[in-house]
Inverse folding.
């Protein structure tokens, strides 16, 4: 039996008409009440632009507003895109032989939801060997392994779109050709997300960032893999286009690279004068090597998409940890590391420094170490607070910040232990566990 929304859209179909000359097909126009009511919104269809006449706008608006009251639609779509999607649906159905059947089928597909597959190129990383499968995602170079892993990634691509397997097989070779200029073989991240349109893009970008941040956070002794902190974001890995691939740009700039990728400074002091150069670069992030470390791999898989409170805390902390790691300013690093510690041991209601330091110390299974842990946290947070409130901390050195980096990684590991032993389902249970550690009724040993 047709739903109220379906009946509303059926009443819209007779009023789909060619748009006036000069009216541009702009997606955002449909979300603007003034523009759609003045017939200044259009949809590209075939060789021309179509619109909805004024006599059909009221029913169109009622149908979209009803859809936007649906929780699943609000969760998976940006509202402004729903307006243009339903306008496109109405236009397409107006050309169908059986218009009612077309509306019913199109609306059912829209409302049934599902998943989107988003494949993103990643910059400033190196890779060797086959692709790797992670929760709801695949990462690696554009080889047959990557294509096969995407197609076998846990959700049948035909359930997303019947053309999906063909599109994947056709698109990936085109991308490989497009990046043939790259000095380092491009790496891609394919993510299955529970969203559509712009929300799916943002979700996939967030998943890619989370994967990179978690990999960095759980890498012990990063210097042994030529991953160095506090050298700036020049080689920070991320979605290509947002994060520029330093090696490729350097290779193609040629002689210009010495001016555009290097800071040449005039330096004058009582002791020495002259020019100094700072080449803000480092080796690309060895992502394959990092992810193939069993401990790192286990931590990335455990925390990448789990929405439980502890994995969620770890993802937030990993983002702040990465911001600190790739920062140029040591003060900025100290602030971000303070945020990472707060994300791991804090509470949604906020806690005083004393309580945060106590939680930090209680995570140590050795009671003899807890007073030292407590003092370290007070020292770290004191520096963070001084910077945040405009003061001048006495010690913000590489060595001091490296200590905090190590302790953020330690806390993240201890919070993983909490998740493994107790798997708290909400923040109240996290609080109960910390209270249990305090009174000796819980143990992370």
């Amino acid at each position: 039996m047709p739903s109220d929304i379906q009946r509303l859209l059926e009443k819209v179909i007779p009023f789909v008409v060619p748009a006036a000359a000069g009216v541009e097909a702009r997606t955002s126009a449909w979300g603007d009440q003034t523009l759609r009511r003045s017939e200044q919104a259009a949809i590209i269809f075939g060789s021309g632009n179509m619109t909805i006449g004024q006599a059909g706008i009221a029913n169109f608006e009622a149908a979209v507003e009803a859809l936007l009251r649906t929780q699943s639609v609000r969760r998976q779509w940006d509202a402004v895109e729903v307006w243009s999607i339903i306008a496109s649906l109405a236009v397409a159905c107006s050309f169908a032989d059986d218009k009612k059947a077309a509306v019913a089928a199109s609306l059912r597909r829209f409302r049934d939801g599902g998943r989107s597959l988003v494949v993103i190129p990643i910059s400033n990383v190196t890779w060797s060997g086959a692709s790797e499968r992670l929760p709801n995602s695949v990462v690696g170079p554009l080889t047959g392994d990557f294509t096969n892993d995407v197609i076998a990634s846990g959700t049948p691509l035909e359930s997303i779109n019947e053309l999906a397997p063909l599109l994947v097989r056709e698109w990936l070779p085109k991308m490989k050709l497009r990046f043939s200029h790259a000095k380092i073989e491009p790496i891609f991240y394919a993510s299955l997300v529970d969203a559509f349109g712009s929300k799916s893009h943002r979700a996939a970008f967030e998943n890619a960032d989370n994967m990179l941040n978690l990999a960095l956070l759980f890498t012990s002794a990063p210097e042994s893999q030529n991953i160095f902190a506090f050298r700036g974001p020049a080689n920070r890995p991320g979605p290509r286009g947002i994060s520029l691939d330093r090696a490729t740009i350097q290779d193609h700039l040629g002689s210009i690279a010495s001016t555009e990728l290097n800071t040449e400074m005039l330096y004058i002091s009582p002791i020495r004068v002259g020019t100094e150069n700072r080449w803000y670069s480092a080796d690309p992030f060895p992502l394959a090597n990092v992810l193939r470390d069993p401990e790192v791999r286990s931590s990335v898989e455990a925390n990448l998409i789990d929405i439980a409170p502890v994995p969620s805390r770890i993802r937030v902390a990993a983002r702040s940890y990465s911001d600190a790691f790739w920062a140029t300013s040591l003060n900025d690093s100290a602030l971000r590391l303070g945020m990472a510690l707060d994300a791991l041991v804090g509470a949604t209601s906020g806690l005083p420094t004393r309580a945060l330091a106590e939680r930090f110390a209680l995570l140590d299974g050795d009671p003899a170490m807890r007073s030292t842990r407590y003092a370290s946290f007070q020292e770290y947070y004191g520096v963070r607070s001084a910077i945040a409130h405009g003061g001048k901390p006495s010690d913000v050195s590489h060595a001091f910040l490296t200590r905090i980096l190590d302790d953020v990684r330690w806390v993240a590991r201890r919070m993983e232990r909490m998740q493994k032993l107790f798997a708290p389902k909400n923040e109240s249970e996290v609080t109960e566990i910390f209270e249990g550690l305090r009174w000796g009724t819980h143990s992370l040993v």
In short: The first strand starts at residue 16 and ends at 18. The chain has 20 helices and ten strands. The two ends are 59 Å apart (CA to CA). Residues 398-422 form the longest helix (25 residues).
